[in-house]
Amino acid sequence: MIETHNDGPRIRGTSKEQSSTPIDLRHPLSFWNAVRFPLQSRDSRRDILIGGLWLLVPVIGWLVNMGHRLRVVHRMQHGLTPWPAWENPRELLRHGVVTFMGMVWYGWPGVALIGLGTTLETVGLTWVGVVLFLIAVSAIPGYMSHYCRNYDWREIFDPFRALSRVHQGGAAYWKAWSIVIPVMLCSFGGLLFLGIGFLWTSVWFWQVAAFCFATVFTQGFDLDRRGGAPEPERPDC
Asked: How many domains does the chain have?
């Protein structure tokens, strides 16, 4: 059920909602819910179309798409309808840049060791770099959903806190990965449509991934505002 408030429509429901209820972060994490999430409404499908067009803009388009996913999660955490969410692309770009800097911060030690090990032809050093990089990749979802909550950049640059959240996520976190990886592989099917179809299947995939990890951490850490008036989206000056 969707309720209307002064600061925007609000989604109400529990994990046992009927199938006609919009899929949100309080729905059970399942493969079917995840793949349907970005396709469930006209507005959500329209946002995917816009996201694919943005990917025609090198680098900037990818960062803006990341900001779009963050806004979608932010709105759901605050009880607001997530779509449409493409207004103010400059703000989306800012969020995308900040979170991408976190990815770089987490990943550079592993990448540096891989490069050094390859240059020196040292297999052991290369494998240490690979392990560090995989740890960094696994830690990134540990800050994304918490950043979405209040757009607080301090949530990003603490890899040990992010890893702690991943550990606390337990089996649900790894269940999210078990959904994300096959969906990622499926998204490459877009290459069959003259290659350009991958623009839109990749946007769909990243939104599925955002839903999976946001569901785990929002439910696990109670990041949404259930039971109270939703907080308006902060413009972030």
From this structure: 1
